[in-house]
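Just wondering, can you check both lines?
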Amino acid sequence: MGHLDIAVANAGISIREPILEAQWAHVEKTLAVTQFGVFHTCQLAARQMARQPLNGRARGKIVIIGSVHQELPAPTSAAYNMAKAAVNHLGRTMAAELAALHINVNVVNPGWIDTPGERQHASEETLAAAGQRIPWGRLGQPEDIGRVVVFLASDDADYVTGAALRVDGGFMLGLRLPD
């Protein structure tokens, strides 16, 4: 249609393997989807937005879905962890480059979210117990993330760029050393 207002880069796959056993094909697949998929989505969106006239106070909004894994070295998730760290830095770099063009770029870093993908790795009992350990008292839901994305894509966030918002119900705050 010749105009792009909002792009949400939400590409991700997690093949969980201990680092000593990780298969290179799985590492490459994780990076191809989780890191390079996000890069390509963002680059193509930014190119289109840069060609557009200013629409109100912005040319467009790019929101990257990262993860708390960008700062949490979760075992068996080395490739995913490093891909999410990379897309967080990509978001900051793009925000720095595109601010003068009035293209907002922000990152949302979800915590433990109850998704079909997560259910491939954990039982119902594990997920229920995990939810009780999060300070908010439950796992996040996709709509918890969606609401933040809607805000960042709205006119209310026209002056927000280069931000990384952790949306985790206090998950990272609840990490404690053993007694």
In short: Residues 24-51 form the longest helix (28 residues). The radius of gyration is 17 Å. The beta strands are 6-9, 60-65, 103-110, 164-167. The mean pLDDT is 93.
